[in-house]
Every structure is written in C-alpha cells, then in structure tokens.
Amino acid sequence: MSNVHVMDHPLIQHKMSYIRDKKTSTKDFRELVDEVGMLMVYEVTRNLQLEDVEVETPITTMTAKRLSGKKICLVPILRAGLGMQEGVHKLIPAARVGHIGLYRDPETLQAVEYYAKFPADIEDRDILVIDPMLATGASAVEAITAIKKRGANKIRFVCLIAAPEGVEALQKAHSDVDIYIAALDEKLDEKSYIIPGLGDAGDRLFGTR
Known about the structure:
Blueprint: E1 4-6, H1 10-20, H2 26-44, E2 50-56, E3 61-67, E4 72-78, H3 82-91, E5 96-97, E6 99-104, E7 111-117, E8 126-130, E9 133-134, H4 138-149, E10 155-162, H5 164-173, E11 178-184, E12 187-188, E13 194-195, H6 201-206
Parallel strand pairs: 1-11, 4-5, 4-6, 4-8, 8-10, 9-10, 10-11
Antiparallel strand pairs: 2-3, 6-7, 12-13
C-alpha cells in the first residue's frame, strides 16, 4: 500500500484516543477532530513546492522560501467532512473550499451525488478531499470520481480512521490518489461500521443521532 500514509505521530495518537472514547462530549469531540485535522495537514502538504524570495529582515536582506503559488482546494464530504475543514483551513487559509454531498441509495446502496460546488479553476488546483471516516469507501470513491469529472487530477484523500475494505476500494477505483489516515482499523462489521472505530462521526460532531 505504497500510496497509503498512516500517521503515527504521538500527538495525533494521543488525541485519537479521546476521539474514540464514547464518553468524550460533543464539544470536545468537535475540537479534537479540528485539532487532528490541523496536525495531519503538516504531513499531507510535505511535498508542496517552494520558491526563493528576497526578504528584508530588520537586519539585512536574505533569500527565504515561500510556497510557489500552489493553488489548493479543500473538499469536505458533507456532512462529517466539515468537522475537519476548519483545522486544515487554519494552516492553509488561502485555500479555496468546495463541497460535495452524497447519500446512499436505499435500493442499490451506492453513493449518489446530491450537491456539488467547486471553484471555477478546480482543474488547476491541488485537491484535499477530507472526511473523518473511510468505511466501505463508496462515498470517497464517488466524491473523487465527481471531482475528476470536473477536470481535477491532483487529488489526495485525508481521513481520521479507515477500514481495510475502504482503503482497498479507494485504491482500486483511484490508484493515483494518495490516502492519509490517522489510524487503520481492523475491519467493518455487518452494518459497515468500522471496528473498533469511533461510532458515527457526523452524529458525534453535531450532536445528532
């Protein structure tokens, strides 16, 4: 799984233990997801290109490094992806934000797009698709397919927890997409919940059931 990056940083793993804990309140859960999203983006953006710029310090003039005009777009998958968006956006405040909404067809059980809104120049941007969970992979696959149909081809997927089944499905459908996760869990249960997982991320983020 050369394109799968599991982040084992101690701070991420520490915070993930509280995210998994069923006793964690909605407020704390939301804050922790935000913080882990922010920590993960350091690794996700490791390969962004830099360029030399001349900077005048209070002492002298020097050559420093800045991002070389890379255009980034964050695409949270509604609704749970919104929980990670703010933390990522804090570190990349100039990034544009697109949104994609999907629902599961009760007959086919396939993910169906019901909403999509992206920057006009999405084909020129590096795309970070964000969603806390990668379970069956159906939503991630459909979201990335929809983004590619709009012309984008530089896409990375970022999530907190993934099941092996979801990773396999996403790799099979989009082998060119790097996958960044904070934890690779054991399996899916008969209801397609990740085991051991963290429950329903959307419900825990927004206090619904």
